[in-house]
Amino acid sequence: MATGRTTDIRPAIDATLVRRLVDTQFPQWAELSLELFDPAGSDHVIYRLGEELSVRVPRHAGAIRQARKEYEWLPRLAPHLPLAIPVPVGVGEPDFGYPWPWAVSRWLDGEVATVETLADSSVAAVELAEFLVALQRFTPEAVTADDAREDLTAMSLADRDDATRAAIAQVDGTFDAKSMTELWDAALSAPGWDRPPVWFHGDFHTGNLLTLQGRLSAVIDFGGLGLGDPACDLTVAFALLSEGSRAAFRAALGVDDATWMRGRGWALATALNAYTAYAAVNPRVAAQTSRQIAGALIG
Predict the structure, then answer these.
(1) What is the CB neighbour count within 10 angstroms for residue 124?
(2) pLDDT tens across 221-264, in order?
(3) How many secondary structure helices (H) and strands (E) does the chain include?
(4) Fewest Cβ atoms closer than 10 Å to its Cβ: which of 48, 119, 236, 267?
């Protein structure tokens, strides 16, 4: 019997392992080159496979459902969205001591979106809103509002209450704890989503947006994809956009006051979570999350 908690498992992942996984399970790609993509996110190790494919291998148990979820939904979503998304072409099985499913997807060229490039762009703001509108309009027959599966649900703001208040106390002195507490209380008190559940990306921020020649080109990493309240996707407005472009984003999306307030709450909670976990060791994360907290406080 295995000992320890599965959530603590951090398997060793290197090129030798990934090469063996690909070659044995997808022999049609055995001759393609394999190159580590760095930096990748905190959830996956990513290798480029040849010129047109990528291999995404989960680093931890929290990301292990993503491969099959994306394989099921992204090919169905892609034709309905105005920006490119990574279309999976295969899901690999555990092997060679690696314990979880992993995925092969179409490679998307582009650079990670930056504040310097897009913050003041009303064009980009409207494109982000149009992407979310299209996503929210996706209505597959396989999942109805009354029958949302567990892997398509997400935490609520209330679920984050204890952790967010603890984080506010932890960063008191670096940020204005009183203002953050007032915002958090207002977000929790805002009326909830009272319409049928809609699709949300679930992790809609700069790290999951790609650009080509300074224009938005793709949205990646749909591990948080789900059905419910779309307020979580408003995080991008506070992580990326300036006040002027944020107004254009909100107008194009048609967001009501209650949803906007919940979105500010999501931006605060997720930024605090990342700041307390990574700011001390990653200056880039410290700067990004500080900007997101400031944006959420401004509104």
Answers:
(1) 23
(2) 999 999 999 999 999 999 999 999 999 999 999 999 999 999 99
(3) 10, 10
(4) 48
User: CA 56, CA 141: separation in Å to the nearest integer?
Assistant: 29
Asked if residues 73 and 225 have their Cβ atoms less than 8 Å apart, the reply is yes
The Cα 156–Cα 160 span in angstroms is 7
Q: Are 58 and 103 in contact (CB under 8 A)?
A: no
- 55 touches 30 (CB < 8 A): no
Global model pTM greater than 0.85: yes
Residues 190 and 262: beta-carbon distance below 8 Å = yes
Distance (Å, whole) CA 201 – CA 236: 11
What would the pLDDT profile of 68-94 be if each residue is shown by its tens digit? Answer: 999 999 999 999 999 999 999 999 999
Sequence-ordered list of residues with C-beta below 8 angstroms from that of 83, at least 6 positions apart, any chain: 127, 131, 216, 217, 218, 219
Q: How far is CA 93 from the centre of its chain?
A: 24
DSSP E strand boundaries for 214-266: 215-219, 226-228
Instruction: Render pLDDT for 178-204 as a digit per residue (tens, 0 to 9).
Output: 999 999 999 999 999 999 899 999 999
User: Mapping DSSP to helix (H, G, I), strand (E, B) and coil, where does residue 141 land?
Assistant: coil
- Cα–Cα distance for residue pair 112/236, rounded to 1 Å: 13
The residues near 179 (Cβ < 8 Å, ≥ 6 apart) are: 297
* Closest residue by Cα to residue 249 from 258, 257, 238, 262: 238
Whole-number Å distance between alpha carbons of 268 and 8: 27
Bridge partners, 212 (sequence order): 215
Q: What was the pLDDT predicted at 149?
A: 66
180-193 burial by CB neighbour count: b if 16+ within 10 A, else e?
beebbeebbebeeb
As a whole number, mean pLDDT of residues 134-151 equals 71
**Contact, 180 vs 293, CB < 8 A?**
yes
